[in-house]
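Subject: sequence -> structure tokens, single chain

Hey, anyone have a minute? Need the predicted structure for the following. Not urgent.
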Amino acid sequence: AFTEEEHTEENAALMKEFNTLSIIYGKVGNQFIDEAYQVPFVRMEATMVAESPMEQVATAVQPLSDALAATTLAGAVPPPAPVVEETDLLGFFDEPTTTAPTPSPPSTTLTLVPYTLSGDDYQTIWGQQTQPTLSTSLSFTSLPPSTVEVETALTKTKICTMASGELPTEFKFFLYGKDGEGNVFLVQAVIVKAALPTPMTIEIKVKGDGMGLDAKVKADQFLELMRSALVAYM
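Reply:
Had a minute. Here:
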């Protein structure tokens, strides 16, 4: 008989306590461990035996069909979220859009009012304005017969004549007017008797409170008023 076949019962008892001190001492635990410290050995029933490694792997592996189903669900496009209308409790969203009003362009026409000015006042105002507001000229293609025709045409636009005169070489006029804003216009104009076309030289002075650059605008408007009155000679 082989040596390993001897002491069969003793070896079987030792194998039950494999991986303990019983292997080193060659004795079962109850032969060298006090009874108070002995751990009772309980044999597991067949129903309590754990699954084999292959069975554990099979349980852990997810079936291919289940994996595909999970992938399909995860990759599916979610339905759009329902549109929730915002409720403006404070009225911030319903503020009317306001557009700044476009400023109206300044008037390009001048309207004069009836006005009477004495000779002394004319000279005083003219002297107070050291420089003319506007120096320019109008081109005449024909000469008026006399100063009367010029004065009559200007009166229709409420441009008044302080004095006028005819000299051998020219017609000379001292004119004035006043607009609805209280601005006073003084004019000295000369029509040269020369070969046509001939110029009507004009100097305009504007007297108004705090006009600044508006004085030049007003002078241009007064010139356009004279042009419209004397267009028959242009």
